[in-house]
Amino acid sequence: MAKTLIAIVGPTAIGKTAMAITLAQHFDTEIISSDSRQFYREMQIGTAVPSKEELSRAKHHFIQHKSISDAYTVGDFEKEALEVLEELFKDNDTVIMVGGSGLYVDAVTQGLDKFPKINPEVRKGLNAELKENGIESLQVRLEKLDPDYYGKVDNQNPHRLIRALEVCLGSGKPYSYFLSAEKKARSFDILTVGITADRPLIYERINTRVDKMLADGLLAEVEKVLPYRELNALNTVGYKELFKYLDGTSTLEFAISEIKKNTRRFAKRQMTWFRKKEKTLWVPYNISSKELILKVKDKIV
To answer: One GO MF term, please (predicted)?
Structure first.
């Protein structure tokens, strides 16, 4: 029987963890997390790390295995995830991967795109521009140079903006040009399962999750990492808004409303990313476990 990686994708707060656990238990297998912010042990509440009860129901990999101070790239994740998969496939015909970080999912399922080498001075100039003119300047430049990628990227993430801009400026071609390269073959089959729901319901679930995070102690978690706010790992929705509140530049009420708004925008970008993937098995968020398993087994047998 062919080895199969089942990748569960979808917008934040849609129920990916629960679905992954359901499938992991049915296939008696383990789960690889491809959520790029759940890697960090200092960020638990704000990244919706699976609960102890959820983690006890199926073994997870790549959950809080790094510190926010560690240098850890999507390339590192690709390499390590493939190594873990090789070991897991020795004893399992099926492994589950779950997460809403599209780039990290693609790294495992397709391999990373190859980009030209860029003069380091280009990045230095962009970092200087960010410091002097703010993130809006980078947003305007990328939207002009590569509108296709601008529509997909987290445009509140300066690291991503700078990476795309340095390729545009250094190569003379749009960043998205290099995203269409031939993908790497994998030694296992891949089934992508996407979870859907009406947009109002997704937004309602996001708002409810944010309220629960605050009730569970998100503000205290953010206070603990405030001294390290310049680290890339912390340039994340839920943290950067509360940093402004702790700075005294916004009210708590406004910060919470910004978290909800920015999370909704992030969910919209996630769906744009995942909707472009062909051969995805789309299922409703409230599908029964029985029907889910039948649909998945029909695709992999």
So the answer is: ATP binding
> Which CATH superfamily groups domain 4-113+182-300?
P-loop containing nucleotide triphosphate hydrolases (3.40.50.300)
pLDDT per residue over 232-271, tens digit each? 899 899 999 999 999 999 999 999 999 999 999 999 989 9
Residue 12 annotated as part of some ligand binding site = yes
CATH of domain 120-180: 1.10.20.140
Q: pLDDT value at position 159?
A: 84
- Distance CA(25)–CA(264), nearest Å, equals 31
Name the segment(s) of the chain with CATH classification 1.10.20.140.
120-180
pLDDT tens digits, 105-128: 999 998 887 888 899 999 999 999
**Beta strands of 152-286 (E only): which ranges?**
189-196, 281-284
Beta strands in the chain (DSSP E): 4-9, 31-33, 60-61, 94-98, 189-196, 281-284
Q: Does the annotation list 10 as a binding residue? A: yes
Contact 176, 147 (CB under 8 A): no
130: left (phi over 0), alpha (psi -120 to 50) or beta: alpha
Contact 4, 191 (CB under 8 A): yes
pLDDT of residue 126: 95
pLDDT digits (tens, 9 = 90+) for 174-184: 998 887 666 77
Binding site annotation covers 17?
yes
- The boundaries of every CATH 3.40.50.300 domain in the chain are 4-113+182-300
Task: Tell me if 14 is assigned to a ligand binding site.
Answer: yes
287 annotated to a ligand binding site: no
194 annotated as belonging to a binding site for a ligand = no
What mean pLDDT do residues 2-24 have?
96
